[in-house]
Amino acid sequence: MSDTEKPSIKIEEAKDKVIGAIAETMDLYGVTPAAGNLYATMYFKDQMTLDEMRTELGMSKPSMSTSVRRLQEIEMVKKTFTRGSRKHTYAAEKNFFRSFMAFYCQMWEREAKMNLEAIEEAQEDFIDVIKDSSSTPDIVANAKKYYDQLEESKTYYHWLNDLVDSIRSGKIFEFLPKDPHD
Amino acid sequence: MSDTEKPSIKIEEAKDKVIGAIAETMDLYGVTPAAGNLYATMYFKDQMTLDEMRTELGMSKPSMSTSVRRLQEIEMVKKTFTRGSRKHTYAAEKNFFRSFMAFYCQMWEREAKMNLEAIEEAQEDFIDVIKDSSSTPDIVANAKKYYDQLEESKTYYHWLNDLVDSIRSGKIFEFLPKDPHD
DNA sequence: AACTTTATTAAGAATTTATTTAACGTTTTA
DNA sequence: TAAAACGTTAAATAAATTCTTAATAAAGTT
After folding, report:
1. Contact assessment for residue A46 and residue B178, using Cβ atoms and an 8 Å cutoff
2. Is B139's CB within 8 Å of A96's CB?
3. Tell me, what's the ipTM?
């Protein structure tokens, strides 16, 4: 059955298998199904214009416009220059290592920054409570407990920042080579 | 102003700052706002029953039930045994390293597995096309191009699996210590 | 400078997702 | 064994996203 297929159709079907898998796992990156499909489609194209995207996915142009913008934000798609064409052209980042680095570094930095800021503020408050003469021993004990819990958790956020640094600098690939020599 | 606050109120406000930050960054873990809030709330509690959660967050019991289940799935909440109580009790995982490991290993393994399976199938198809005598040179060249692109991308998924292994085994902490000796 | 072409923004429609109320099943206790 | 306490499932409602059509803005061409 599949042996009798036209080769050109078989190529499309093979691509679709991969497109489906990529799109399905793109939820990890917090993008909509439309954006996931778009990226996966672009993965097999050199570059695309908004109109080509619309035709290929059968969706509206503004939808493509916002999807492609979101994909640009997480650096999975880059704008490309095409001289002679007035249409904007976009290309998918095909190196998954680069996508991985851009996305997770961005997210982890945000997580560490937000939480560390909140922790610092909260810890100051807990210190105030501990120093406050109107605090009962019970309350002081509580404030200390929370202070210590937060202090402990800072280790994690610092580690997350270290992880980001080692990914950005590429040092992590010394520890975990891209191409392990079997 | 804030100096004149009652210490017990100040403690609650300090906790709320951290709760807000945690809940806000929980979108990274693909959970609903309710689940994010719930986890962040539980982070400052020893353990909680569904009724306590409902009271604390002012939400319905089924909502707590489904939120807590989702949090269990990504191993951010564990069921705890409390003898003498008919109510189920749950405790938040307070070690962020463990949450990190459980969540990302699970997700990355899924990503690698799904995509590698699709890639293997697609590559077989491309080989068929290349071997097919009815394929034009143009089509063969195309199939080869896609085959190579997929072959290249496998490096990434293998690396992702290696990363998961090194996290699961704890080897990554030899490279990136939790507690860097300044 | 007016006219095209293209992309983006805004507003509205539709779908999806999240949440709640109500009903059900199960376990425990009296 | 009946009643009560819990948790979960199902159906319905509410809320938030996402998508589309229409309008606007921006850039390029004649």
Report:
1. no
2. no
3. 0.90
